Hints:
By secondary structure, this protein is α/β, with parallel strands linked by helices. It has three domains: about 25-160, Nitrogenase molybdenum iron protein domain (Rossmann fold, 3-Layer(aba) Sandwich); about 170-290, Nitrogenase molybdenum iron protein domain (Rossmann fold, 3-Layer(aba) Sandwich); about 310-450, Rossmann fold, CATH 3.40.50. The chain contains 18 helices and 13 strands. The chain has helices at about 25-35, 45-60, 75-80, 80-95, 105-110, 115-125, 145-160, 180-195, 225-230, 245-255, 270-285, 290-310, 320-335, 350-360, 375-380, 395-400, 415-420, 425-445, and strands spanning about 40-45, 65-70, 100-105, 135, 170-175, 200, 235-240, 260-265, 315-320, 335-345, 365-370, 385-390, 405. The protein has a five-stranded parallel β-sheet with strand order 11-10-9-12-13, sandwiched between helices. Strands 2-1-3-4 form a four-stranded parallel β-sheet, sandwiched between helices. Strands 6-5-7-8 form a four-stranded parallel β-sheet, sandwiched between helices. Helix 1 packs across helix 2 (about 45-60), helix 4 (about 80-95) packs across helix 6 and helix 12 runs parallel beside helix 18. The chain binds iron/sulfur cluster. Iron/sulfur cluster (SF4) binds near residues 23, 106 and 141.
Amino acid sequence: MLEGTTAEIRERKALRVNPAKTCQPIGAMYAALGIHKCMPHSHGSQGCCAYHRSHLTRHHKEPIVATTSSFTEGASVFGGLANLKTAFSNIFSIYNPDIVAVHTTCLSEVIGDDIPTIIKKSTVEGIIPEGKIAIHANTPSFVGSHVTGFANQCEAFVKYLSESTGETKNVINLFPGWVEPADMRELKRLATLVGVEFIMTPDTSDVLDSAMDGKYEMYPEGGTTIDDLKAMGDSFLTLAMGPLASTTAATTLEKKCQVPSQVLELPIGVAATDAYLNALRLAGDTSVPRELERERGRLIDMISDMSQYLHKKKVAIFGDPDNLTSMVSFLVEIGMEPAIVVSGTRGKKWEAKIREICKPVNENVEVRSFSDIHYLHQWVKANPVDLLMGNTYGKFVAKSENLPFVRFGFPILDRVGHRAFPTLGYAGGLRIVEKITDAFLDKRDREDADENIELVL
Ligand code: SF4
């Protein structure tokens, strides 16, 4: 399909070909799904909402429920006030959520709809019933990406709901960043093992990977509760994972409720997981249990056993900034050489950070933010690599260049493992090493002459 791609690179300023990102409301929708009994609401036309829902449904293999203001020509010209009021009325009477999280789209942002005022009016007029809540986040998609949309929605939870009673509790806030439900579950497991009491926001585990029990629940049992969102203002510390996805909410909480925060990289690999556990241990004045030391040891053992297949292998990788920072660090940790690193989200500081991480193994790493998969393909053609990592859209590049391919990031539309197995923590590290090694060995099994095929690893 992409065999016609050339190695000759022409700089493009106003065109993205196969972008390495999606639009802001998808992130806001994902974050809202991590709140218990929350209905994500898309204030714009139906097409946006349908696209965002279907993208999340295809990634999580779960039906994603969200509502829309269903703009037509009238709302596009005169504004969406009437549509949003009607939507609130319908949503609360038909679907009965505890909270509606409104996010905007390109269209409602261009019109300039004043959502806080519409929410106030709807509250005064009783359209939003007593005891129910509506909040909003601005997520225009002509700036940012799905990760900034996620960050904006997380900030909205804090802005609207967190409050300080003046009585600090022995609880920490965990902002997990944009990671899979399985990763959120893993972060919680690690915090529980270290013996720390926490509130995780948002928490999509047991919402987007809920158990099949034969009954359909519009609001599964998982998700951060509204009481917990409020109580975040009384915690003594926030650990915010993933600088792009979580810093804004942590800083806003710090300003609003004086809860100090610490920003960490996503705990992918050995050093980043050590840093997460260390932060938990210090916060809780506890110690890391033997069980986790053994897990760490098993990961180190796997890395050393497989190093003959990983050492100095060149990797091209694309995805979201936070996830890339941690994954690239882990690739360096296991002896591989990141050669091309591409993100669709803007970030010059992030580029510098990646160059610094790669310096010990590859000073000439090609790093680009606000770039696309077509550029990545051209760089791969000009400077061949051994492995490609990225979301599902990378498979066309992998096929064209006959490269081993490991799926990583969002969206993964054509595999299911990301639903069940974490990438974070020592357990996640084991899985990443397994996937990378298997990708190399599968290629060899396919291509080696019969007399060279190894039966034993
Ligand atoms: S880019 Fe804008 S118009 Fe397109 S789907 Fe996203 S929000 Fe809607």
